[in-house]
Amino acid sequence: MIKISVAALALAGALGLGNLGCIKQIILDGQIEGTRQASAAIDSYSDYEAAQGAAYSGAAQFEGMHYLAPSNEDALFMLAKTWTSLTFAFIEDQMEQAEDTEGESSGLYAYQKARTVGGYDRALHYGIQLLEKRNPGFELAKKNDATMKAWLSHFESAQDAETLFWTGYAWIGRINVLKDEPAQVADLFIGVAMVERVKQLRPDYLYGSVQTILGAYHGRSPMAELDEAKKELDAAIAQTHGNALLPRFQLAAKYYCTKGDKANYVKTLTEVVDAGDTLKEQRLTNAIAKRRAKRYLGKDRMMRMCGF
Length: 308
Hints:
About 75% of the residues lie in helices and about 0% in strands. The chain contains 15 helices and no strands.
């Protein structure tokens, strides 16, 4: 009769439990990867309210997945992307509504502004965490534009570009909300450098979105780089032959508004509002652009923003 020691049995049991843990992790990682791939389906939504519910549900789902698998890079990426996109699309939209209906001095506007900053902060928390996993040193890199670009030069893959895009987008979006605070604006170069690095790595990423963000940045004020803004926004529009509407919205909101060109401002926003189903892969983004364009045609907002 073969004798098996208690120690051997204990070892076998430990190995079995270890393998079981590995199997569970593999299954969880596969589920997160599959959910990331399937998340693109929301981009084809044309119903703004339905997409809003789906976006918040998606954020909660990935928060849970991250809790179970804190080192999983797909979960970190999707949290950065989801919090950036839902903050821009839905929370910031509510902030603008409060601004138009109640005014910037209202409690409702202050509440929605705080929610918007908080949404971008959450996106940055996850995006920077993922960037640090791939290349530590972000805090030291923040010193100035040169140190930031030197740090960013170590990001070279298409996957890196996606993470940099959503993190840079969140950084710029947050500071745009806090544009009246000089200390915040002083750090704008960080987000801009990230998006500029994306332009070097993947200039065609997401239907002209890279050039749209840079164009909006360069058109941020009458003292900014308006010729560069027009160049970037025209390039964004050309990527989809005008079928992606957000670049056209930003051309009006950031360029024609800043230039004081009311005729082209109204013409461009009206074209966005009246556009049909021009790009099925970007129906949700186009619905957001139409919603913003309609708001930006309001007389009070035109006067407040553009002076006409």
